[in-house]
């Protein structure tokens, strides 16, 4: 699955796939932090061969004798504030157009009660009684009522939700989530009910949801982190306490930007990039929000370090 939109290979050494890790993609920052001891600094070498990543850059060749190492945005160095502004604006318009792949199609799902009937996990009488109880209470999910009325176990309801969403049911290991807090902004964990569960082989992230998948968020996390995201459902009684614990964990710093228009948002995001001067930054859309993640220094392992991550979550216009 494509992880990031790659820019045409203007500079071969920047064309490394994101899977290779930020230490490769953000070559500027990498040269500052992860050079093996004993190697000569690569600054001068980079200064001669690096070109600005903005296709419309107006800087002359001489100006590219690097006055600065950063920022790097989506794998490309930006030579000036103006070039950062143009690159961020073009990434923002890509995201707003849905060309980044963040658009969700509406898919009709078979109601949970019918899935359970079809599987023979409940009887028509069970379903009618649970629906009546739900109507009378005016609240609660059908699955919850089926469990409360002892028509079905929580495991069966979660399995039925998995069938409904066409996704696996994921298990949960105690306290496995807290270390993964840096992967998703706290605001998204809270608002979209996502729970990073565990990583496998440093490449696959299992992302749990309680009763419905959020493909937009899953795709955004995949594009930001470069990890393959496997999304699935977690049974409610395991999800809730783990989610509450995760919300107490340490998350990266976040800045919220509400802009009146898309150009104003682009300008504000570009200013944030110029201020932070990250060694890598990526922009993706999550529903109506734009998520800009900046790495203030090269990431040294599969997991980002909260202290060196700065997130900006922005929106444009009134929703
Ligand atoms: Zn430039």
Any overview of this molecule?
This protein is 37% helix and 16% strand. The chain is an alpha/beta fold. It folds into three domains: 12-101 and 252-316, no CATH class; 112-165; 178-247, Type II secretion system, protein E, N-terminal domain (GMP Synthetase, Chain A, domain 3). The strands form three sheets. A four-stranded mixed β-sheet has the order 6-9-8-7. Strands 3-4-5 form a three-stranded mixed β-sheet. Helix 10 links the parallel strand 4 and strand 5 (228-233). Helix 4 (81-96) crosses helix 12 (262-276). Mean pLDDT is 82; it is low at 1-46. Zinc ion binds at residues 52, 54, 57, 59, 79-80, 83.
Mean pLDDT: 82
Structural shape = elongated
The quaternary state of the protein chains shown equals single chain
Number of continuous helical runs: 12
Tell me briefly what this model is.
The chain is of the alpha/beta class and 319 residues long. The protein has helices at 22-25, 27-33, 43-49, 81-96, 112-118, 124-137, 142-148, 154-165, 186-191, 215-225, 236-247, 262-276; strands spanning 72-73, 76-77, 194-200, 204-209, 228-233, 253-259, 280-286, 289-295, 309-316.
């Amino acid at each position: 699955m494509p992880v990031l939109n790659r820019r045409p290979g203007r500079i071969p050494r920047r064309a490394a796939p994101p899977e290779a890790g930020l230490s490769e993609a953000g070559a500027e920052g990498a040269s500052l932090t992860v050079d093996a001891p004993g190697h000569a600094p690569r600054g001068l070498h980079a200064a001669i061969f690096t070109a600005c990543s903005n296709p419309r850059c107006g800087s002359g060749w001489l100006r590219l004798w690097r006055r600065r190492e950063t920022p790097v945005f989506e794998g490309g160095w930006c030579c000036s504030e103006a070039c950062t502004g143009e690159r961020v604006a073009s990434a923002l318009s890509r995201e707003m157009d849905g060309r980044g792949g963040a658009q969700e199609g509406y898919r009709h799902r078979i109601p949970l009660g019918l899935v359970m009937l079809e599987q023979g996990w409940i009887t028509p009488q069970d379903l009618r009684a649970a629906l009546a109880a739900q109507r009378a209470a005016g609240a609660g999910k059908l699955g919850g009522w089926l469990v409360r009325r002892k028509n079905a176990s929580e495991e069966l309801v979660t399995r039925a939700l998995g069938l409904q969403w066409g996704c696996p049911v994921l298990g949960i290991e105690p306290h496995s989530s807290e270390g993964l807090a840096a992967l998703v902004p706290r605001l998204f964990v809270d608002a979209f009910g996502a729970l990073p569960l565990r990583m496998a082989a440093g490449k696959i992230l299992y992302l749990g949801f309680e009763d419905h998948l959020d493909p937009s968020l899953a795709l955004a996390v995949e594009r930001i982190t470069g990890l393959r995201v496997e999304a699935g459902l977690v049974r409610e009684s395991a999800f809730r306490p783990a989610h509450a614990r995760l919300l107490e964990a340490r998350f990266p710093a976040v800045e919220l930007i509400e802009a009146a228009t898309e150009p104003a948002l682009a300008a504000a995001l570009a200013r944030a990039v110029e201020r932070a001067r990250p060694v890598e930054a990526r922009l993706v859309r999550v529903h109506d929000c734009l998520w800009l993640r900046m790495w203030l220094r090269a990431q040294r392992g599969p997991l980002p370090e909260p202290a060196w991550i700065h997130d900006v979550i922005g929106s444009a216009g009134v929703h």
